[in-house]
Design brief:
The protein has 4 helices and 8 strands, in the order αβββββαββααβ. The mean pLDDT is 95. 29% of the residues lie in helices and 35% in strands. The chain has a single domain, classed as Pnp Oxidase, Chain A (Roll), CATH 2.30.110. A hairpin with a 2-residue loop joins β1 and β2. The longest helix is centred in the last third of the chain and has 14 residues.
Length: 134
């Protein structure tokens, strides 16, 4: 099973032939800019489409704090996304409460553990919308 850095490496090397279809759902690679280091940081994330945008969840397995990649994109919202062989620049933003309410059920259908993660943390798990910029 692909996970973490190995997942990113195989995804990038194969243009998503390995890694896009993952554990019964789909994954993309999100590259953020480190908020302190300024270095690129790539993370494989489960996604769903919403119109022209891509939607991901900053779950961190229901940990009490947000994942690093989410903190990075809050500081630097211009990100790079790879979906299969397609690479593009996007603007990342946290979904508004009404958007989150609309999108959460679809995301939880794609990865049912999201509901478990939300139940075990006091924080509202952010839903992130990745809007292609061109």
């Amino acid at each position: 099973m692909l996970f973490g850095a190995e997942h990113v490496q195989r995804y990038l090397e194969t243009d998503g032939a390995e890694g896009h279809d993952w554990q019964g759902t789909t994954a993309l690679v999100l590259t953020t800019t480190g908020r302190r280091s300024g270095q690129p940081r790539s993370t494989p994330l489960i996604y769903q489409r919403d119109g022209d945008s891509y939607v991901v969840v900053a779950s961190y397995g229901g940990a009490p704090e947000h994942p690093q990649w989410y903190r990075n994109l809050v500081a630097h919202p211009t990100v790079t996304v790879q979906v299969r062989e397609q690479r593009f620049t996007a603007h990342a933003r946290t979904a508004t409460p009404p958007e989150r309410e609309r999108l959460w059920p679809r995301l939880a259908d794609a990865w049912p553990a999201y509901d478990d993660y939300q139940a075990k943390t006091d924080r509202t798990i952010p839903v992130v919308i990745l809007e292609p910029t061109a």
